[in-house]
Amino acid sequence: MMKLIEYNKQKSYIKLLIEVPEDLYYLSLILEKNDIIYSWTTRQLKIERATESIKGKRIRVYLGIRLTSFEFHKFLKNLRIRGVVIDAPEDLHIKGSYHTLSISVGSELLIYKENFSPLINRILKMASAHYKKILLLSIGDDEISVGFLSPQGIEIKFTQQLFISKKREKGYSLLKLYGEVFRKFFEEKRDIINLNGFNEVIIASTSLFLPMLKEIFSEKRFFAGKILRYVQVSEGGKAGIYELLRREDLKHFFKDTRYVYEKEKIDELFSYLIKGDNKIAIGLREVRVAADYKAIKTLVLNDSFFFDINEKEKIRDILEKTIEASGEIIIISSESEHGKKLEKIGNIAAILYFKIVN
Questions:
Q1: What is the pLDDT of residues 223-235, one digit of tens each?
Q2: 3-state DSSP helix/strand/coil percent for the chain, to nearest 5?
């Protein structure tokens, strides 16, 4: 959950702390052109000489920029915000020049906006909503994978191959050998398997290893204070993580996560489409008409509209009219499986309160 440190409506600013990678996703939905953003960054000094200007060392500096554009890098886990420097230490002589803030986990931002519209307030509420956060741990005989569910879908934090020698002393079981390897792995990866923000851990493995893993994780030094759930899968590693999400008998584990909530909305939308129900609008043109009639009950759109400032401006009127009509807004990750389904029908659709006759 994004940490909202301060929200001053009178002075039109918010202070945010980025705590987990998915916070960057919501930050990109909040940002608008001409927002003024303050954050710590680095800037390369320029040393002026009589005949030339040479680059000096990079220094850490707190500065403010007026936003012109931004790029969300899912795989790099950062948001690059570009703008004109409006406030910086005088000795740097950089006011009026362009600078890019690289925002990642741990970054703190102060954001001034011309006004906090109902749309931005709605997105802030979405960003701080208390959805269940689940860490996925899948263990096989030759691979261990750690992942989680974000609004974008399954995120694999890391995968490590296991190389276990089958040669062993007489009377030394292979199962015991695996037990030692697993214990060593979890001791060494304690810092990498960061549990901050996760409510539960689902541990998936084959029938051979699952009893052993229950014994290992019963030791208090592993996952203390977290809800642990054990699931038998046909194969460990990455394959096991994807199996968890496919299985119908495990759906109840994920029912309160953001990913599943969005998937259910897409499924509902497509059920209307398949039935030929007239209380539905597909594509930007139809949805715009529905918004004008204040007819939108549930608006579903891909986040690709938000990653380009000009595209966001095109749909602002639709979003604001949906809020006026007390409609629900569901922003789907275009990278997810259900986001790709939505892309095929124009990236935007709506379930309506009533049928519109054109």
A1: 777 889 999 999 9
A2: 30, 35, 35
Q: Could you read off the pLDDT of 237-248 as tens digits, one per residue? A: 999 999 998 888
Question: Residue 92 to residues 44, 49, 52: CA-CA distances in angstroms?
Answer: 9, 15, 17
CA distance 149 to 161: 22
Can you read off the two tokens belonging to residue 240? 């096991």
**Dist. CA 345–CA 266, nearest whole Å:** 12
DSSP secondary structure code for residue 49 in this structure:
-
pTM, full prediction: 0.71
* Residues 64-74, mean pLDDT to the nearest whole number: 89
Cα 274 → chain centroid: 30
Q: What CATH number has the domain bearing residue 41?
A: 2.30.30.870
Domain count, the chain: 3
Domain membership of residue 267 as a residue range: 259-352
Token pair 């379930």 is found at: 351
Residue 134 near residue 200 (C-beta atoms within 8 A) = yes
Q: Which two tokens stand for residue 51?
A: 């005949």
Lowest mean pLDDT among 79-88, 221-230, 336-345: 221-230
Q: What b/e readout covers 319-331, taking b as 16+ CB neighbours within 10 angstroms?
A: bebbbebebebbb
- CB 87: neighbour CB atoms within 10 A? 12
Q: Are 322 and 291 in contact (CB under 8 A)?
A: yes
